[in-house]
Amino acid sequence: MCVARSRREGGVVTSAFSDLAGVAGGLWDPAPEGRRAAAQAAACFPDSVPLLVARLRVETDPKVFGALESSLVSIGSDAVVMGVVPLLRACEPAVRIVGTDILRVLGERSEPVARALLTDIDPALRMIGVTIVRGLPTPEAPDWLLDVLRRDPNPTVCVSALECLAEIARPDMAPAVRAARDRFSDSEEFAAGIDQVLRVIDPGVWTARAP
């Protein structure tokens, strides 16, 4: 019997899922209950990552979907990180969201992928990178977001970076944030984001944009 890492309160994998072959078959069970049981059991099998990701792409039952996500997070390996990255380009919003959530929860293990996303050609993926970087447990995260603010050509991506900087920016970043104000002078949302960051990190001297 394998103790399921996603069931730390004494739950165990049933004999139906005593090996990877059983899990593989169960993930394609016509009954949602069977797929959910297989998804939960998969947490015991690190090599099940490709199977979980493949099922995640097509799963429609919310409970099974959640079990697939939980097992991937429980395994939490580099294989999980690399396996879910393609999900970020999926057509289905729910699949993209769960891919983002898994990378965000895995934290430091996702750092190389998150940094790469910040320079992706697709603005939507750069925004996902910003979201993941915000939660990384590394002191360099604010600097990476500030770099996005300085160089990214897309104002929406920069607004996303500003929203995150409002939570994690350091006071010493205030001059650089002020210097970026004119990058998108026709965007009120961008200007408001600049002001919000300055309110947080430099409340004594920030200057609101003139109407």
Automatic annotation (TrEMBL):
Domain of life: Bacteria
Molecular function, one GO term: lyase activity
Keywords (A to Z) from UniProt: Lyase
The keyword Lyase appears for this protein: yes
Gene3D superfamilies cross-referenced by the UniProt entry: Leucine-rich Repeat Variant
Identification of the protein by name: PBS lyase HEAT-like repeat
